[in-house]
Amino acid sequence: MATANLFSQVLSSSWLHWALQPHLALHIPDGFLSLPISLLTWIVSIGLIAIALKQVQADYQERAVPLMGVCAAFIFAAQMINFPIPGGTSGHLLGGTLAGALLGPWAGTLVMSVVFIVQAVLFQDGGLTVLGANIFNMGLVGTFGGYYLYKAIRFAIGRNSWRGMLVGIAVASWASVVVAAAIASFQLALSGTVPLAVALAAMMSWHVVIGIGEALITVVAVSFVWRSRPDLFYDPPRRTQQSLSRPYSLH
């Protein structure tokens, strides 16, 4: 019994514990990041959020506020619903690419930041001391990276085409989850929590699959908006711009 307890203690306090885990959560808990990494991600996140606030105030009309609220409410509710992943785990929507496509990267960043703050404070989904890292990984990188990848693919295939939108949203949504998982792995490794190879194996193996769920959910949501109110897109199709005014952007 003593030997078993000793082995359990050693296992739980070493990187072997992580090697045997099915996956690591993308919402990093308290105590998993070193103080320098936590402070750095806090500084970067606060700085980018401050810039986003200025950009939204300067470039967006008041009509954007209700849309931001609706988008935040939808993403928050959607994140509460987990979809099963083979192997006994589950995933849920992050929503960065969705927010970016509908609101643009700056307003989308604000929406995602609010969502993750509420989750951490009210539902303990991710730690408070590492909230800067979670906002950076899933909110900032997910929104900016997802939006610009979606935009690049959409313009390459056809800016006003259904196929361009569909492929762009699907690829960008999947990539936003995978990239966020990779960045979180590097943060854990730099903090000395777990070796990089172990972190990447634990994070990437599952989030590559979770990203597929992210892509499917985002495609369904964006397809509905595209068919019903394409003018709500931050960068709507040209045919819509000719008949409907831009809902909130001045450029």
UniProtKB/TrEMBL annotation:
<feature type="transmembrane region" description="Helical">
    <location>
        <begin position="32"/>
        <end position="53"/>
    </location>
</feature>
<keyword id="KW-1003">Cell membrane</keyword>
<feature type="transmembrane region" description="Helical">
    <location>
        <begin position="130"/>
        <end position="150"/>
    </location>
</feature>
<dbReference type="Pfam" id="PF01891">
    <property type="entry name" value="CbiM"/>
</dbReference>
<dbReference type="GO" id="GO:0005886">
    <property type="term" value="C:plasma membrane"/>
</dbReference>
<feature type="transmembrane region" description="Helical">
    <location>
        <begin position="196"/>
        <end position="226"/>
    </location>
</feature>
<keyword id="KW-0813">Transport</keyword>
<dbReference type="GO" id="GO:0000041">
    <property type="term" value="P:transition metal ion transport"/>
</dbReference>
<dbReference type="InterPro" id="IPR002751">
    <property type="entry name" value="CbiM/NikMN"/>
</dbReference>
<feature type="transmembrane region" description="Helical">
    <location>
        <begin position="65"/>
        <end position="83"/>
    </location>
</feature>
<feature type="transmembrane region" description="Helical">
    <location>
        <begin position="103"/>
        <end position="123"/>
    </location>
</feature>
<feature type="transmembrane region" description="Helical">
    <location>
        <begin position="162"/>
        <end position="184"/>
    </location>
</feature>
<keyword id="KW-1133">Transmembrane helix</keyword>
<protein>
    <submittedName>
        <fullName>Cobalamin biosynthesis protein CbiM</fullName>
    </submittedName>
</protein>
<keyword id="KW-0472">Membrane</keyword>
<keyword id="KW-0812">Transmembrane</keyword>
